[in-house]
Amino acid sequence: MTRFETRAVHAGEQRWGSPNVRPSEDLCPISTPIHLSTTFSHENVERTDRVLGGEEPGYSYGRYGNPTVTAFELALAALEGRGRAFAFASGMAAMHAALMAAEIGEGATVLAAEQLYGSTATLLVQIFAASGAEVRFVDACVPSAVEEKVEELSPRAVVIETISNPLLRVADVPQVAKVARAAGSTLIVDATFGTPYLQRPLELGADIVVHSATKYLSGHGDLTAGVVVADAPYDAALDQIRKLVGGITAPFEAWLALRGLKTLPLRLGRQCENAREISAYLADHPKVRKVNHPGMKDHPDNEVARRVLSDAGGLVSFEIEADGPEEGREAAFRFLNALKVCVRAPSLGDIYTLAIHPASSSHRELSPSRRARLGVGENLIRISLGIEHPDDIIEDIKQALDKA
Ligand SMILES: Cc1ncc(COP(=O)(O)O)c(C=O)c1O
Predict the structure, then answer these.
(1) 385: exposed, middle or buried (Cβ count in 10 Å: 0-12, 13-18, 19+)
(2) Can you tell me which atom of ligand 1 is nearest the CA of 192?
(3) Where are the alpha helices (DSSP H) in 109-182?
(4) What spacing in Å lies between the alpha carbon of 92 and ligand 1's midpoint?
(5) What pLDDT does 62 receive?
(6) Mean pLDDT of 119-148
């Protein structure tokens, strides 16, 4: 098999001998076209019958599949190293489908990481719990706690994230996979912050991987999409759920995401470098109290990160020195308002450096006491590093901290 960087560039493209659409003698574009067709016709109705019956590969209707979407899916599955990929209209649609494929419903228990992305936690508590599932939470970064809960509850599924937001805690995926497997639970890993460049959870024992492709996979802040990559037992369910719920990604978004994937190793490599440099700079700054980056020796999961990730990721969060929450919030707002190169905006994984105040954005819906328990203070800032020159990012942060 070729190396990750090579696969990122070529995988999924519709070339001679590709498992996707066969190019013709007359036309073999080296970049997969955007197939903007709702329906697909065949040379005879017998073939249409075989395609609809799943006896032969092919396309019939846009909600069931599209060649551009397939190209993106094949590319991502090639990067994950195994499994089949299904592209969705958003990361949340992908997570919803993964939970449905794991049969989370009436009478099923799901054990979820306390550190989960807020909308995933709300999806579980509001939508899945309302249809009869029992939703329980655990600190996914305490292996003994996960083991205890899995033994106690025998959950149908365990849901964790590779790297969590905004404190960048790192889950021990191989360890959780071992425990989940022993209990017969399906392990779902949201690998949005890691991408297959940093970790391939299916190779570490997970059953289903979910990505918000809105982030690092596409990388340019210009689309919303999601993907589920799963082992064979979940294929049929995912295919059926996507057909019936109708959450397939659109061809243009799939094309943009496929194009983004080609530079994932280059972008994320640089973003990891930038995160390393910026966290070292922040750690020495007199106005900064605490820096969170899994690559730092004093990060609680530094040892796990070295073991389970190929690099420490492209995000950093830090607390500005302040006396109390009110002063912390004012200092954080002054810092954000003073930024000139870094963009004040949610999301992450873009080529642009993005900065947010988690307490008033991603974690706004939580009560102040829950935020405090999770370590999301008013003085906390999260930065998703882009691919700019690190010195420009540092100069921008320096001048903004002077004003904080
Ligand atoms: C870890 C994680 N998972 C899932 C999502 C949802 O992705 P989307 O916004 O593409 O639906 C996000 C969005 O921020 C996220 O950070």
Answers:
(1) buried
(2) 1
(3) 118-122, 143-153, 173-182
(4) 6
(5) 97
(6) 96
Atom of ligand 1 minimally distant from the CA of 226: 10
Which of 96, 161, 170, 212 best tests ligand 1's pocket when mutated (most atoms within 8 Å of CB)?
Answer: 212
DSSP states along 15-67: -TT-SSPPPPSS---SS------SB---SSHHHHHHHHTTSS----BTTT--H
Which two three-digit tokens encode residue 77?
Answer: 């599955």
Ligand 1 pocket, Cβ-based, cut-off 6 angstroms: 90-92, 117, 119, 161, 165, 190, 192, 212, 214, 224, 226
- Rounded to the nearest angstrom, the distance between the alpha carbon of 138 and the centre of ligand 1 is 20
Query: Cα separation of 123 and 159, whole Å?
Result: 12
Q: How many Å lie between the centroid of ligand 1 and the Cα of residue 252?
A: 20
Nearest CA to ligand 1 atom 14: 347
Instruction: Give the active site residues.
Output: 63, 117, 190, 215
- CB atoms < 10 A from the CB of 224, how many? 18
| Atom number of ligand 1 nearest to Cα 224 | 10
Rounded to two decimals, what is the model's pTM?
0.96
Q: Is the pLDDT of residue 402 over 70?
A: yes
Centre of ligand 1 to C-alpha 210, Å, is: 10
Q: Considering Cα of 74, then 79, then 83, then 89, what sign does the dihedral take?
A: negative
How far is residue 377's CA from residue 396's CA, in Å, rounded to a whole number? 23
What pLDDT is stored for residue 23 in this prediction?
66
Atom of ligand 1 nearest to the CA of 193: 1
Q: What percent of the chain has pLDDT over 70?
A: 98
What is the sign of the dihedral through the CA atoms of 106, 145, 305 and 375? positive
Measure the CA–CA gap between 187 and 257, rounded to whole angstroms: 26
First to last CA, the chain: 51
Residue count of the chain:
404
Q: Where are the alpha helices (DSSP H) in 124-263?
A: 143-153, 173-182, 195-198, 235-245, 251-261
